[in-house]
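Weekly modeling sync, notes
Attendees: S.R. (lead), two postdocs, one rotation student

Agenda item 3: backlog of single-chain predictions. S.R. asked that every request posted to the team notebook include the full sequence so nobody has to chase files. The rotation student volunteered to paste the first one in as an example of the format we agreed on. Action items at the bottom.

Example entry:
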Amino acid sequence: MSLSGGTTITAPTTPDERAVYSDLLGWLLGRIADVVEATPSALLDTPPYEGATAVGAIAAHVHGATVAWALGIGAGQDVSRDRAAEFASSGVPANELAVALRSLASRIDASLTTLDPARLDEIVIPTTSLFGEGDPHAMPRRRGFASAIRHCSIHLGHLEMTADLLNTR
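Predicted structure, as returned to the notebook:
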């Protein structure tokens, strides 16, 4: 397309689906790591009110769920998950949680870079431990990546609100 004045605009190409998943998950995991690092260490394992979940446990849960959904279900890697232990997590320093989250983003990027795009169409039935809550059902592998993005997004907001509540004490 040519604009008046001689400027030419080329229509953008469609990005590779795998690159989109990697970009979104990398950004989300990085932001979650930032919130964890910004939380005072004395408050990392402190729920903002009775019955709530602490920042450290939310971050551990996000890590475990993202390993399960992105690497296990999406990329078809042999991974394991202990959902109950994610929520019971405490005593892990913020820098260790942040490093684990950023490292996971790198692992996801590496797995997506080498994943044959045709594998995204494979239909799988996840194990109960990888699926989390509810009954596992058949889905394409790409659903693992999409679900990981949705889950990280929900918990990023959850973490930000939890951190805000803690910082207003």
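Discussion: group reviewed the output briefly. Residues 17-167 form a domain with the Four Helix Bundle (Hemerythrin (Met), subunit A) fold (CATH 1.20.120.450).
Action items: rotation student to repeat for the remaining queue; S.R. to check formatting next week.
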